[in-house]
Every structure is written in C-alpha cells, then in structure tokens.
User: What shape does this take?
Amino acid sequence: MTAANLPVRPFKWARLPIVASAFLLLAFIILSAASKWIPDPSVGWSDPDSMMRLVEVRDFRSGQSWFDNTQYRLNPPVGVLMHWSRLIDAAMTGFSSLAGLVAGEVNAEVVLVNVWPPLLLIPLVSALAAAAYPVAGVPGAVVTVLVVLCSPVVTNNFQPGALDHHNVQLVLVAIVLAGLSRFARVGAGIAVGVAAGTSLAVGMEQLATISVVAILVAVRWIWIGSAARSSTVAFSATFSITVCVLFLASVGVERWLMPVCDALSISYLLPALVGGIGLAVIATLSETLFGDRLRQGPRALAVFALAAVAVGSMAAYSPTCLAGPFAQVDPRLYPAWLDHVEEAQSLLFLSRNSPTDILVFLIPPALVLSGSLGAVRRVVPSEQFTMIAFAALLAVALLIAALQIRGAVTAQCIAAPVAAILIIKLRSLIAPSDRSLRGLPYRLGGIIFIPVVWLLLVVFLTAEGEAKVHKAEQAAACRGTLAKALGTRPPGVVAASSNLGSFLLATTPHAVLSAPYHRNTEGILAVTDLWAANLQDAQKIIERKGIRYIAVCAADSERGLFTALNAHGFLARITNSPPEWLSSILHIGGTHLFEVRNGR
Assistant: This one.
C-alpha cells in the first residue's frame, strides 16, 4: 500500500479543546522559561530557599552522604542539620545528570535551574484538570487549565529558579485531588496513598492537608460501608507502606528513634502506620466478619478508637509534636526573626499592613469555597464526595492561609478545579439559545473565581507594586555587589542578615552565620545580638564566632528590624562610623562590606 492510499483518520473535533489546552500549557512553559531565564546560576537570584536547595544539590553531587543533611557552611563549625528531604535532592541530581548528557556537564546546572521548575507545571496542570473531569467533563478540564495559568500565586512557584520543594508539594496535592475525584476505583486509592505518603516524606507543609484526606477516607467508609472497602484499604495500606519505605530510605539509622516535628520522623511514622494499617485491617475484617450487616455506628466507634490509638502513639512518644511542625522551634526565634517573615504573616497582620494582599491571595479561593458549599447540594450523588472533599480541603487550606499567608498557594491550587467546576455549572443553568441579558451573570459570573482578575484590580487601584519592585531591585543589586566583592577574598565566616545567608552560600565559597531557617537558631540569634550590641560586646561575639567579614545591605528588609532593637547598636554604628578594628572593603551607596583586622 502506497502512502497515497493509506486511510486518513478524520480529526475528532471534540478533542480540539484538549489539544488547544495542551498547546497553551506548552506555550506558557516556554514563555515562562524564556522570560525568566537565569543564564548564570552562580550569580544567584532572589529566592533564598531555592538557592539553599541548589547548595544542597551541589554538596550531594560532590559526595556528601545521602543521610547527612547538614549544611556545614551555615553556622560553622558545627553546621545546621537541615529539615529538608534528600528525595528532592535526588530527583534534581538525576535531572541535572540527564541534562549534562544532553547539554554538556558545564550547562547541567543552568538547565536544572531553568527547566526543572517549569516542567513541573505539566504534571500539576494535568492532575488538576483530571480532578475536574469526572464532575465537569472536558469543558471543566479545559477551564481548569486556564484557571491555573491565570493564578500567578501558583505559577510563580514554577518559574525558572524555583528549586524549593513547594512546587513538588503542589504537584502531589494535585494528584491527591485527581484521585479523590474518582475514589471509587482501587487505582485511585493507591494513587492518593502514594501521593499523600510522598508528601509527608518531602516535607510537613501539607501535613494538615494529608490529615484531612485521611479523615475524609475514613468518614466515607463509615458512611458507605462495604461499597467503600476496596478503595479505603487501597489508600490506607498504600499510604502506610509509602511513609514507611520513604522513612527507611531517607532517614539515617542513627535518627530512627529521634522525635522530630518538622520532618518525617518516628513522630509521624508511628501514627501513619497505626492509622493506615489499622484502617485497612478494620475495613477488611468488618467485611469478612459482618458483610453489609455492620451499621454506621459501630464503624464510627471503630474508627474513633483507631484514631485515638494513632494520636496516642504520637502523644506517648513525642507529645511535643502534637502542637505541629514548629513545636520544637526555640521561642527566642519568634521576636528575633520568625514573627517578621513575610510568608508567615497572618490575616490580621495583612488587614492592618497590606490589605491589598488579601484580595490577591485569599479572596479568590474564599469565593470558590463559598460557591462549592452551594454546589454540593446541586450535584448528583455520585459527585457529592468529590465536592465535599474538595470543599473540606479548600477550607483547611484557607484556615492555614489565615494563620500564615504561605498557605494561600495551596488554597489557590485546590481552588482551581473547583472554580472550573463552578464555572461550568453556572453556564449550565442557562439554555444555550438564551442570549438575553438575564443570562449574562451566569456566563460571566465565574470571572470572580479567577485570581489574576483580582491581581489586575489591585495593580489598577494601587501603586504598591512599583515600590516593592524598586526595593527588590535595590536589594538584588546589593547582593550582587557583595557576592562579587567577596568572591575575590579568602574564605571566612560572614556575618550578615538571614536574607543574605543562602545567597552568599550559593554564590561564594564563604561560610555564613545566619540563613532563614528555624533550625539555625544559634546563627540567627548570634547575628541579632551582634547587630544590637555595643562595640565591646560586638568584639566578643565576633571573636567567639570566628567572624571575618561583615556584610550589610541598606535595602535589606531585615535592617529596619535590627536597628529598631538598638538605634545606637553595632549595625547603626558601622554604617556611619566603623571602629578602627574594621577595615572597609566596600562602601557603595547602601552596600557595605567590612573585614575584621587580623581576621580569622
């Protein structure tokens, strides 16, 4: 048969929206990578967590042990044992190794920094579209793609340079949503279990989300009974196995019995095993022994008893962790640093100091939540669990965002498929032939669920964005100048604000005292004390910590906090009239770099 005689399969026009969405996503990824491309990662950029991740990947590729998460150049000589998972380091190392084979080893890091984050948009958007599909069909999936790409709070986590693990966490949450939307299937239960367990292994940011998922699965089994057994057992067993396997794979033997609240540890392994395996056993035995005869009351009592044992296992071994991932944080860090971290601010703080951020971060998902609560009663029974699960997860994410604004990213991620479902449902309330003005609210009402609309409103009504951009540019210029100056100096310990710590670790061979991590208690407090000290006490701190260089950026957001501690302290003194035992290496505008004479 010749090529001319080959049968031509007609194009199915029903696939056009899906194909168009795929091309739109690809175009978005390419444009994002091209517009934010970082040609030389060695000069750094403005994301401390991502630069610290890059430092960890470099150390791992250079031979640091898989089970050794210590950052030795942070608060030397002891260093800081980081709470981040090696799983992300391994994934990035594998990706950069592949990139090295394709683009050459010299370009491997450039490809990692610029390509890895945007590529993660593919599984994120695909999973979120899959979450909307069972309820809203192809139109809902397509609208989900549009909503996600119109959510800057979400997509900012997938731009070049975003090496932090938060984007991976969002992908895992999206997979959980996709599985919950078709949870009657055993395969969906397995997918949710694997994604939820992996999320805990990556970090504790989604601990509340995963806890709610487990509760939803248990409540579904209580309510439905034997019809929910297969998917319940699949989720519970898979979740426990995943957590256990990743615990053994990523935690060193010497730390197996160490109770830790901010990372996967025995503190979380025990309740995961007790709760997961326990629920699987209860669901299986109830089916085997009683069939359909076991009522909701006894099932509820069994689940409540299991939950008490699971929580009790944590309370017995590590009661401190019942207060959450930050339970072991030194209280001194709150006034010195943590209370002033922007992403950790509460709704109350934003209402007083930056009310426009509420419009951008919280209003869109809050409107979606209110709409979803109304939609629960209108969907068919087979779709109710999906809508209830989505609403519950969104409510919890919003509650966390009200306490710490960083939770808004998860809230907007969860809200995307729900917003798409609501938009499709709104349009279905009017007849296709109805072109009257009465149908306009139903056609256009869904626009209030799209985050970029609120962002554009804020930009139009205020000029806050320009001021923030200008200050960020000043801070970036200062960081670059410091890195260039320090790059030519002999290695030593640098005293600088925590905002500069990760940047200097990534761009210079020097060690630093302070970086923005709650486990770096000693380093952060040492720098805080140094800035507020008089000259005599400052000399003692410098001697004790072996400080050789002191770096200051006037545009640094932490500078105002430090000068407020003591307007006549060491920080204020050295930028105006440095003592004779400090040698000024650099003084350009608000950028200052000093070396301690006869420094160590």
In short: The domain at 466-596 is CATH 3.40.50 (Rossmann fold). The longest strand covers residues 547-553.
